[in-house]
């Protein structure tokens, strides 16, 4: 089974269902990517910050070497980390990431956050995370315009086929659209029934920007980080509405949550460290929920966000914020 694709405003086709690489362990990552390709996954959502791009590339290389796929069958995504927003740092870091993957272009390269942090030399620390020196978060000086212009240069040079953004709100996108020569192909956002972001999703759709949902299972992903907010939130998998709709369609709650997104044209990139769940998560376009079922799930919205950089100290303690220097 492979995923259906959606056409991006760049003209390229993107699978609607992919595999997310955040928190995929380094020691198992290459095998997981390889096995996911064998299971039918074609899109892999990576990032500098996930610290596993070399291993992801090894999994890809093995699948290509064994003739399971060709490079052009895959849709490989990576992200520009906050420490590399300066205009002159975008291309070098993109090239480093391509080297890590062992490929010569990304299908999609995304600005991970609309947050510029002070440059950290990859020779000093990589991936750098949120801090400049392992302790302090130090803002950088690049505007989003400077960064986006450099991102457009990646397309011109063939290093990225499409470029996108992540964690941007509507106001920031409106501003970006004033100067963008290339409209972002995708917007990746936290999106699950506790955070439906309907206004932003409609805004993106109206501007021909495909939305990709991350953390589609809400609190589940953040339990792995031992986040208190996630522990305090009832699991979506146990939600009676989600469970009863899942039972009606003889699907799991996870599949139901993913279908709720894909049926509305929203791409998904669930992560699983388990081969069975990974296979299950790909089978999320072969059944349809009714309009009232979609609405019932949307009705669970609480505007509850788990991945908020302002809460970064709850994920990765780094207490000191310094002014721009
Ligand atoms: N742009 C951004 O800022 C951003 C932020 C967060 C995430 N992302 C991307 O989005 C991807 C997905 O988001 P995510 O990693 O936060 O979380 P997610 O895919 O919503 O959830 C992952 C959690 O759900 C479990 N799980 C997966 N499939 C399951 C199933 N069928 N049944 C039951 N449990 C299941 C996983 O456990 P097991 O592994 O044990 O199966 C894991 O605990 C990331 O990997 C990353 O690529 C992007």
From TrEMBL:
Active site: 50 (proton donor)
Keyword field contains Magnesium: no
Keyword Oxidoreductase part of the UniProt annotation: yes
Pathway entry: Carbohydrate metabolism; D-xylose degradation
GO molecular function, one term: D-xylose reductase (NADPH) activity
Residues annotated to bind substrate: 112
Lowers pKa of active site Tyr, annotated site positions: 79
Residue span, NADP-dependent oxidoreductase domain: 18-301
GO biological process: D-xylose catabolic process
PROSITE patterns: ALDOKETO_REDUCTASE_2, ALDOKETO_REDUCTASE_3
Keywords: Carbohydrate metabolism, NAD, Oxidoreductase, Xylose metabolism
Stored InterPro entries: AKR, AKR2D, Aldo/ket_reductase_CS, NAD(P)_OxRdtase_dom_sf, NADP_OxRdtase_dom
Annotated family: Belongs to the aldo/keto reductase family.
Annotated protein name in UniProt: NAD(P)H-dependent D-xylose reductase (XR)
Organism: Heterodermia speciosa
Gene it is expressed from: XYL1
């Amino acid at each position: 089974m492979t995923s259906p694709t959606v056409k991006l405003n760049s003209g390229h086709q993107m699978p609607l269902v992919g595999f997310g690489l955040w928190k995929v362990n380094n020691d198992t990552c290459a095998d997981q990517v390889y096995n996911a390709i064998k299971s039918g996954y074609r899109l892999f959502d990576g990032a500098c910050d996930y610290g596993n791009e070399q291993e992801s590339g090894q999994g890809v290389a093995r699948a290509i070497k064994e003739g399971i796929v060709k490079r052009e069958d895959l849709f490989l995504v990576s992200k520009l980390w906050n420490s590399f927003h300066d205009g002159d740092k975008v291309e070098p870091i993109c090239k480093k990431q391509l080297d890590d993957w062992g490929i010569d272009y990304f299908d999609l390269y995304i600005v991970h956050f609309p947050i510029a942090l002070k440059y950290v030399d990859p020779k000093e620390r990589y991936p750098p995370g949120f801090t400049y020196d392992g302790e302090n978060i130090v803002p950088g000086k690049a505007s989003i315009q400077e960064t986006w212009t450099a991102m457009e240069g990646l397309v011109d040079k063939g290093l990225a086929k499409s470029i996108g953004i992540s964690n941007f709100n509507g106001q920031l996108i409106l501003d970006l659209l004033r100067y963008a020569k290339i409209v972002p192909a995708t917007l990746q956002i936290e999106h699950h029934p506790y955070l439906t972001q309907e206004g932003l999703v409609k805004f993106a759709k109206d501007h021909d920007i495909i939305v990709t949902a991350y953390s589609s299972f809400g609190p589940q992903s953040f339990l792995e980080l031992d986040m208190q907010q996630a522990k305090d939130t009832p699991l979506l998998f146990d939600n009676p509405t989600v469970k009863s709709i899942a039972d009606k369609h003889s699907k799991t709650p996870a599949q139901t949550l993913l279908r709720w997104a894909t049926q509305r044209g929203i791409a998904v990139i669930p992560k699983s460290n388990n081969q069975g769940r990974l296979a299950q998560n790909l089978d999320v376009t072969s059944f349809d929920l009714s309009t009232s079922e979609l609405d019932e799930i949307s009705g669970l919205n609480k505007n509850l966000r788990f991945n908020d950089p302002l809460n970064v100290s709850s994920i990765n303690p780094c207490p000191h914020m310094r002014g721009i220097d």
